[in-house]
Amino acid sequence: MTRMTVDSERLVRRLKELGSLGVDQDGRLTRLAATDADKLGRDLFVRWAKEAGLKVFIDRIGNIFAIYETRENAGTAPIMMGSHIDTVINAGKFDGCYGVLAGLGVIETLMAEGIYLARPLVVAAFTNEEGVRFTPDMMGSLVYVGGMDVEEALQAVSIDGKLLGHELERIGYAGKLDPGFLTPEAYVELHIEQGPILESLGIQIGVVENLQGISWQRIAIDGVANHAGTTPMGLRRDAGHAAAKIMEFVHELATEYNTEMVGTVGSIHFEPNAINVIPSRATLTVDLRSPKEERLLTAETALADEIISISNALGVSVRSETLARTQPVQFCNDIVDRIERVVELGGFKSMRITSGAGHDAQMMARLCPTAMIFVPSAQGISHNPDEYTPDFDLINGANVLLGVATDLARTH
Ligand SMILES: [Zn+2]
Predict the structure, then answer these.
(1) What separation in Å is there between the alpha carbon of 84 and the centre of ligand 1?
(2) What pLDDT sits at residue 412?
(3) Torsion-angle region of residue 264: left (phi > 0), alpha (psi -120 to 50) or beta?
């Protein structure tokens, strides 16, 4: 018996075709959520799903679900695949779209082969994953799992001053179904890595076992501006010096936790910002990420303590403000094991990996057993027109998704 495979030529062609829709006047691929460009992408996906013989449903937040069920398995909890087809500004063709189109390809393969499945298969395209036009990001999946009220989400105002609810109606994707209308038995998301690890190690498949939590803070330090030449070192209240101490502390803290944390001070601003004036004010941001919640909590506490001792020692006042905070997500061990088995059968190399970026899967993990599959991103580049994954890797990933979805849909 020959091994089932996803139609690779069709997958690659569709990625190209979807990626050609929504190019803005500057020649950049930009399909922000609920825009005319987004409608073009949605219409194409829906057309392909309907041509394949799938039933298509839209929920109130505009999430699209294409369902394949048979008389025998109708009504049982489905296996859901999916991702998103909205993009950032000047995007690549693969982020999100790959997971949606590969999911469709998986279903088409199983339909063509006439394989018996104990459960229906669904491919989902979630609304506003990127969060560029409306906040928060991952909105469609967040609403779907009950993490945000649908009415509140529909009232979200875009960067161009439009209500999401009106925009969804305008483009024809304000559905009737309540988000969460289907509770899947499992959710599997295939995605490009968007980082350099797999490519640099020559590994074809990343088995994503968890996703980092994120802690963002803005720290404002107030000291006293004074003459850089006449103010003795011991009499200064130097906001810049305090900022430097915090930067160093963040780096040391993350380094101490080794592979379990990364820490970055990515933005800093001094006032008055002059060569011969002691800074009166410094504002900086801190980005801490870890796959372990207790690590994030410990780091946040350590940073808060350090800030108090720095402000006492240097005579400055420090205020910190949380800008964003998400908890790490642990994916389902059983699905992670199944992915590894499928990869092994296919003869590819895999490694367990932590997702450094947010994905719809982190929301779906609140609703059902969930895991993700990564394929390499050339040079780790993403959210950029140079985003690229070779066809060979795209096809491997789709075939792993096929194996995992089949395995899950056949067993309970
Ligand atoms: Zn994505």
Answers:
(1) 6
(2) 57
(3) beta
For tokens 């027109």, the residue is 385
| Cα dihedral across residues 399, 401, 403, 405: positive or negative | negative
Amino acid at 81: M
Burial class (CB in 10 A: 0-12, 13-18, 19+), 260: middle
Distance (angstroms) between ligand 1 centre and the Cα of 85 equals: 8
Q: What is the pLDDT of residues 123-164, one digit of tens each?
A: 999 999 999 999 999 999 999 999 999 999 999 999 999 999
Q: Considering the entire predicted model, what is its pTM? A: 0.88
Token readout for 57 is: 């449903």
Distance (angstroms) between ligand 1 centre and the Cα of 220 equals 32
pLDDT value at 307 more than 60: yes
* Residues in Cβ contact with 344 at an 8 Å cutoff, skipping those fewer than 6 apart: 350
Rounded CA-CA distance 23/231 in Å is: 57
Q: Which amino acid is at 128?
A: N
Q: What is the identity of the amino acid at 375?
A: V
